[in-house]
Amino acid sequence: MDKRYTVFVSSTYEDLKSHRDAVIRAIMRAGHIPLGMEAFGAANASQWKVITKTIDNADYYVLIIAHRYGSVSKETGLSFTEMEFNYALEMGIPCLVFPIHEDAYWDRKLTDANSDNVSEFKRRAMEDRLVAFWRDEAELKSEVTSALLNAFSDSPRPGWMRSPKNDSFETASEIARLSQENSELRQRISSEHSEINDIINFLKNKHIIVRYRENISHDEDYDEISASAIDVFNKLSSALISGVGEAYIIDYLVQRDDDGPYFIQSSYDAQSTMKSLVDSGLVDVDSSDKPGVKIYKMSQLGRKVLQSIVIRSVKTQIGE
């Protein structure tokens, strides 16, 4: 029967996401079970019991270190990454340490201004044990795979046995798969939030001028509305949810009463008004039953952006 091992992968969070994911994929491809912060996100005090229980069930512990010390616990004054390392040592779990090579290129934005804590942590972690340095993801993945193979032979652990009478291995493998999916989902959510923030900032800085007049006479001069694209989106939001035609866009922007005058607007101005919203993906354009008439409807992205705008507005009102 094949034996499979559980490997806890530890590192600081934001700066080593892609490196850690590469290591996790390599461990899974080798048929073993990676676990770590993917199961519960960036560490904090409320999750510490979950983290320690996960380490308790690990056969091996992999520590990846670059140039950040990580989030610090108020109770201990240590980073959660160092706390994980200390706990693994206390539990007698073989610890494999992979510090970044001093010659490796690294983004300064991902480096602590005060390097004393991370330098001391590296010194402790490398003390009295074999370590393997890395310069990039490919080298890190290779070093971890090689070190684990040696550890399986030199420091054998209980592991998991594949057996018809024991479904624990399948359960642990499913946990590892779900952990990886959880990590990928959080990354997609983070990317989506970033996209929404970019769209809102664009709408705030984009100004729109719309011309209109209060009767059908062609002799009357046009009045103008000047507003940011985000204000236009807000004013049109209720109409866009159900769908609004070009002829009624001005009505919603100037918010006239039902018995007020009829506002005239050229088709070109209507399309120009909506262009920024359509180009941003906030509004879809549909054809109506009437030939040549366009209906504007809020897209799924538009609904998410509107929800974000409303939440921000509420937080501002309550002073958050």
Describe this structure in words.
- The protein has 320 residues and is α/β, with parallel strands linked by helices.
- It has two domains: 3-191, Flavodoxin domain (Rossmann fold); 206-317, Arc Repressor Mutant, subunit A, CATH 1.10.10.
- It is 47% helix and 15% strand.
- It is built from ten helices and eleven strands.
- The protein has helices spanning 17-29, 48-56, 80-90, 116-126, 137-154, 168-205, 229-242, 249-254, 267-279, 300-317; strands spanning 3-4, 6-10, 33-36, 60-65, 95-99, 160-161, 207-212, 223-228, 244-245, 283-287, 294-298.
- The strands form four sheets. A four-stranded parallel beta sheet has the order 3-2-4-5, sandwiched between helices. A three-stranded antiparallel beta sheet has the order 9-11-10. It has a two-stranded antiparallel sheet with strand order 1-6.
- Helix 6 packs across helix 10.
- The radius of gyration is 29 Å and the shape is elongated.
- The N and C termini lie far apart (58 Å).
- The model has no long low-confidence stretch (mean pLDDT 79).
